[in-house]
Design goal:
There is one protein chain. The radius of gyration is 14 Å and the shape is globular. A hairpin with a 5-residue loop joins β1 (13-15) and β2 (21-23). By secondary structure, the protein is mainly beta. It has a six-stranded mixed β-sheet, with no helix packed on it. It has one helix spanning 6-10; strands spanning 13-15, 21-23, 26-28, 36-39, 54-56, 58-63, 71-75, 85-90, 96-99, 105-106, 115-117, 122-127, 132-137.
Length: 139
């Protein structure tokens, strides 16, 4: 996790004795944290399409290199479900597009449309239904 920015490290999870994650005083049931905890070796797809986007399979994903504006990743469709959490950091120099799973929606962008994350920024996505996600940005 050495590549994660300071705000993520401050937001870092600790497993409590009850099996929950304590994230800066916010508790998430363990089952809502999907896949591996983190990955800092992700290469986004240069296709710039949802179909061929690199799939995120971790709770925290750090994308170190975004070679072209709008290179893309996508949230796995099976990560949906009330309160599921996915955190993405764009460590690259270009805008990173983040697609939801097929048929899903982020914010009010419409189904299958990408969320654009500026270089150097981190975003938290929280599922609010089986097919809808909201974005929560760091201040």
């Amino acid at each position: 996790m050495a590549n994660f920015p300071d705000e993520i490290m401050r937001f870092s999870a600790e497993v409590t004795t009850e099996g929950n994650f304590n994230m800066a005083g916010r508790f998430l049931p363990y089952g809502f944290v999907h896949g591996n905890t983190d990955n800092d070796a992700i290469t986004p797809s240069t296709t710039q399409t949802q179909a061929a986007a690199t799939t995120l399979d971790t709770f925290w994903s750090y994308i170190a290199t975004v070679a072209n504006a709008n290179d893309c990743v996508k949230i796995r469709a099976d990560y949906s479900g009330l309160s599921a959490i996915v955190i993405v950091t764009n460590g690259g120099a270009n805008i990173l597009d983040i697609f939801p799973g097929v048929g899903h929606q982020i914010d009010a962008l419409g189904a299958n449309n990408a969320y654009s994350l500026a270089a150097g920024k981190t975003i938290v996505f929280r599922a609010i239904s089986a097919t809808a996600w909201v974005s929560i940005s760091f201040v």
